[in-house]
Amino acid sequence: MSVNTAHANNGVLIHAGEYILLHSDSVTMEFSGQDNGLFKGSKAGRIYLTSHRMIFNNKKSAEPLQSFSAPFVALSDVEIEQPVFGANYIKGKVRAQPNGNFVGEVKFKLHFKAGGAIEYGQALLRAAKTAMNNYHRGGLVGDDPPPYQPAGSWNEAPPPAYQPPPGYYGWLPQHDAFSGPAPNTVFMSDNPPPYPGINSKEAEAAASAYNTPYNQGGPSAPNPNDLPPSYHNLPPSYDDASKKHQ
């Protein structure tokens, strides 16, 4: 996880070749387990699920924590909670990336004001499983996430980055809480992600095609049949949480 590295111009900053899968404009996040003042208090903002990570952007520009990025390889103990009294929420732990502006581990709770917690959580677990299958070290418990790499130069993202094309993957949920990000709010770095996504080969191809003019095709969606057919070498928390809420 890295802090204050995934926002730009009041929008979200993603890597070259990264796609936004889900977006919700009405969530709150709470953090615990850290003395760092960045994590104090409940924070209202936007949540993104991309092909490589979970990103939160704060709506309040005066707060010190403006964004945090949690690559799938840094997540653990992710669970979808359904309390008898109160709204559903997602909880988990995130390990810090080297150069990520904080050290250690932080716990989080993610609340969806407009609903969609279960749907987002299930999609997050599915994406994490697929990405971990691409992790070159096997995605074993205790593996450190790759160091955060500075974004370098960035520009407004081309349209394919805003959301997956129709029929992309086939397991993304439909819910009123999810919408496409507003125009001119997604920006893309020139650098590809330093960690695996749900389809690493697709990300590399998209990164190389980033500068292709829109009317000449640009990044294209992969065939869903090309996704890894199995999910292995995963932290037990992913499997347990997924089975618990199926």
From TrEMBL:
Ranges annotated as biased composition (Polar residues): 209-218
Domain of life: Eukaryota
Coiled-coil region: none
Record-annotated GRAM domain positions: 41-129
GO MF terms held by the record: chromatin DNA binding; transcription coactivator activity
Cellular component per GO, a single term: nucleus
Gene3D superfamilies: Pleckstrin-homology domain (PH domain)/Phosphotyrosine-binding domain (PTB)
InterPro entries: GRAM, PH-like_dom_sf, WBP2-like
Region (Disordered): 189-246
Protein name as it appears in the record: Uncharacterized protein, isoform D
Underlying gene: Dwil\GK16830
